[in-house]
Amino acid sequence: MRYAINFTPTAADPLTIAASQWLGRNAFSGEAMELPFIRELGLHEIAFNTAVPRRYGFHATMKPPFRLADGMTEPMLLRHLLHFTGQHQPIPLPRLEVVRLGNRFALAPERPCPDLNHLASSVVMHFDAFRAPLSEAELERVDTERLSASQFSNLHRFGHPHVMDEFRFHMTLTGPVGSTEMPVFEQVLKRYFEPILQRPQVLVNLALFVETEPGAPFLVHSLHPLGSVSARRIA
User: Which Pfam family, any one, appears in the UniProt record (predicted)?
Assistant: First the structure.
């Protein structure tokens, strides 16, 4: 069993619905979604190039997947997550846009957001006590030769290279895309998501995702709204 602390909009949010259809799976229900009809791409092309993010579900990673440390339990994690979200306020996000991250595509803010980076770092540090250390097998699967000194340090301190100063908020839309296909996917993704990205997005919750067994698709276990209970009632 592995857990992850992420951001994802609510199940009924238009962005969640559109992204779930693009990926072919709803992370809230676990159900397969009918892929959108896109003139430039066959359904098999979309399915093949979204296989990796489909398993993880539509989200932005805050605390990368981890196994519980000895002595930690799911109820304890949930209690701490409830307390933690009560101490932090919702964050208006800069407008999201389709971006290339290496050979993948994702949604990312059009400009830096210090509050967002601060929250992500706080999540990583606060919940690190719940994380079991990486096993030797897990460490061996990481291509450490491609890591910077900071990323290497993060891997051994927090179990993942792309946290703290190496963090970049993004919501993955594809796995690796071939170089010849990149222009088509970029055009298609921008056109597909553009109408939805006109709506302002606010990071209003943290979501606990769960992988019930190795290789299983991640599912949304629970949503935890940011802000104190009294403030949420007023809102």
Answer: DUF1045
